[in-house]
Model the fold of this input.
Amino acid sequence: MDKPDYDRETSALLLIDLQPDFFPGGALGVAGGDSILPGVKKLMNGNAFPLKVATQDWHPPDHVSFADVHEGREPFETIRCHGHDQTLWPPHCVQGTAGAALHPELPWDKVDAILRKGRAKDADSYSGFRNNDNPEGNRPPTGLSGYLKEKEVDTIVLCGLARDVCVLWTALDGVRMGFKTFFLWDLTRAVNPDQDEQTYAELKSKGVRIIQQEQVWR
Done:
């Protein structure tokens, strides 16, 4: 496989929501999530990226996305929230809990910054770049884009969980915000693998470049 066409010196690795609650056995565990850990760890320990940034879901216990906050609702049902569809999830990544911590098997001392998202109880934040709560598209920023641009980053390479939710949304926002965006397909896993073909097509159609981990290591 060819090496991706980008300047290493202006690139950043984005590590999306690598938290126990999103791994098998967690409150919102993604099947096969454990299988990405060796590859992610190798990238974190390596020198392929001068900057490494992690996102961390950090929800209050009464977060709007939790099914048990809405009487009579079950996980994975959909409600309308701020004018758009909101999936209701099992409670997960509650601030200060073990499930919300960063995964203990990964070398977090190698990371330059950690951005906590989804902190407000009345809005979700799938993307590392912006919250979900404005259906017109002018969604409130998290500050990640400004941080990366201050560091003179023009290229982002994403891995983490989940492929069809937070990694997807972060990648799409990355393109919208002007970053050359690469998606490490084999270092992500999906909540709903049946949607992989749709996810792949959406990423490609919006200008996200899909690559495999071995292309970065070369």
Q: What stands out?
A: The beta strands are 11-16, 51-57, 78-81, 84-87, 113-117, 155-161, 180-189, 209-211.
